[in-house]
Amino acid sequence: MEIRVLNYFVETANQNSMTKAAKRLHVTQPTLSKQLKDLEDELGQKLFIRSNYSVKLTSEGELLYKRAVDILNIVNKTENEFKSMNNFNGGDLHIGCAESYGITIVAKAVKSLSDKYSNIKFHLYSGNFEKVTKQLNGGLLDFAVTVQSLDTSSFNSLNLPYMDKWGILMRKDSKLSNKTNITINDISKIPIIISRQGFSDEMPNELKNIQSTLNIVGTYDLLYNASIFVKEGLGYAFCLDKLIDTSSESDLIFKEISPHISSPMKIIWPSKSILSKTAELFLEELKKSLN
């Protein structure tokens, strides 16, 4: 299985058309068609459902697509790392991030590094703990930033000096807006919007313990989108502080939960992998900024 053919396969899947894919790949359609047929023969599986004007992935094709994208990303990442070894002036940094204001710490370290090396490029990936650790172990990420007290013993880690505070995002005219303290009991009485990761390890135990009593009316991937629904009076968003504008000009306010629920933050990286030159320098810069 050649990298070139995997690239042909992914491009064809992205375009849903051999004609369009052939043009983008600068090959003839018969050549592309033969290469993909040879790939199907090699794997012993049909990868595309073909019609006169389009192609569509089979279930086997969808599985290969996920694998092929990861493989091509790793190849590209590796090529870039080796290119940057001579006359180093920067490189690519891949970081999985939880949605948190504490990412400011990481951003400042990247800024300090980019001031020294003009060709630093950063790539940020969102995802829950399970997703980003899988990408770390697969070589797709250099680092991941985690929140909540999770088991990271299989990784190298560095504690970051920031604690996320959990609370409720609400309209300023909502019935809870005048309360000094928002309790767990209050949350069970309101229509709540939670992160789509739901009651995974990242969710505080205090909320997981009352899951059965919650009136969950919606879920979100990006808090900004959820805040629009909050503005429209569709519910209250359970989230971290300092991610949405709650200034005097905003229609929204954030209320911390009492007693306070906070989550520690750390950055982790594979314990058995060799860091790229860019990743090494970033880690040095980050440690320097914390001292």
TrEMBL record:
Superkingdom assignment: Bacteria
Gene3D superfamilies membership: Periplasmic binding protein-like II, Winged helix-like DNA-binding domain superfamily/Winged helix DNA-binding domain
UniProt KW NADP keyword: no
This protein's UniProt keywords: DNA-binding, Transcription, Transcription regulation
Short name of one Pfam family: HTH_1
GO molecular-function term, one example from the UniProt record: DNA-binding transcription factor activity
Occurrences of domain HTH lysR-type (ranges): 1-58
GO terms under cellular component: cytosol
Keyword Electron transport: no
Family per record: Belongs to the LysR transcriptional regulatory family.
PANTHER family linked: HTH-TYPE TRANSCRIPTIONAL REGULATOR YBHD (PTHR30419), NITROGEN ASSIMILATION TRANSCRIPTIONAL ACTIVATOR-RELATED (PTHR30419:SF8)
Protein name: Transcriptional regulator, LysR family
Source organism: Lachnoanaerobaculum saburreum F0468
